[in-house]
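The pair is quoted verbatim below.
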Amino acid sequence: MAVAAARKTVKAVKEFNYTWEGVDKKGKKVKGDMRASGEALVSATLRRQGVSVTKVKKQSTFGRGKKITEKDIALFTRQFATMLKSGVPLLQSFEIVAKGHSNPAVSQLLIDIKNDVASGSSLAQAFGKRPLYFDTLFCNLVNAGEQAGILDGVLERLATYKEKIIAIKSKIKSALFYPAAIMVVAFIITAVIMIFVIPTFKDLFKSFGADLPAPTQVVIAMSDFFVTYWWAIFGIVFGGTWFFFYTWKRSKKMQDTIDRLSLKIPVFGELLEKSAIARWSRTLATMFAAGVPLVEALESVAGSAGNQVYFHATKRIQGEVSTGTNLTAAMQNTNLFPNMVIQMVQIGEESGQLDSMLSKVADYYDREVDDIVERLSALLEPIIMVVLGVLIGGLVVSMYLPIFKMGQAV
């Protein structure tokens, strides 16, 4: 009963962020931030440090702290692993990392996890209560590390894994963002010209009293359409984009279709395929190295590739492996993995170094993704310049054709 009451008391303690101002022993005004359970504790701590407190204010939790990102979790994992390797106790490690973080939202998350652990939960259970930040793969690895007594080593591998995955996601986003941003800018510029610029030329051409060139007539007709139905055009474009992403997030059938088609897009399909294989290989290597059984590891690997085609393929591989088929044969049956990957996995299975071979596969495909992104950047820049030049230049030339003809007539 006493133990249960003590655990309940520990769990009830919550800490908040406070800003304080005061005067030190030398009479100099000082101020800072502190995380504590109450104003009295802040004042007492500062008095022990020789600071005469003049003001203590609790920071509002509303609107405070940025959103917790994957980078925040990766940084915490790396810092936490370093603390444990240095021999710092588990709960103290949480406290040190929480107080040293610049994002109050992350600090609060870590303090809550520390309180759960202090109240008797295992570390994996504490992480598992927060699936928004710690996925199944993270929790399974932490659980394996706790069971085997190698938590610091597992966390270090997990930090490396997360850093590599974030890096490869960033490369893909940068490759796709550039053309998407140019398309949006081109659409907006074209709309502005159609709605505001071309009608001015149209009024000017009415006084010419002559037939306009065909390109000019086409552009004016397009401008009239834009001016009349601009609300419908913008509604269809932006509404359609919103509806696409809204449906894509909620429809498994649509995700399957989009992911399958995206792998067939020239150049971009190759980029998505190689990044999926890199993430798939690195996830399985990390899980296997941590001692997670292969069938159980494949459960977490299924969602790590970021593509529904590889998700369903991994589920088939998991089913075959659970019935006694070796990993190499199961992967070969999917017809999704290149021969090099199959051969590396086969060597890894035969030599007992599957995690090492999968890590080498992931490293190789990471470099391949880098090369593709560089080629895409070099290829897209001139193509986009030509497209924009033809689009904007064509509009300008079409509107100046009547003026040129009028000059020749004079």
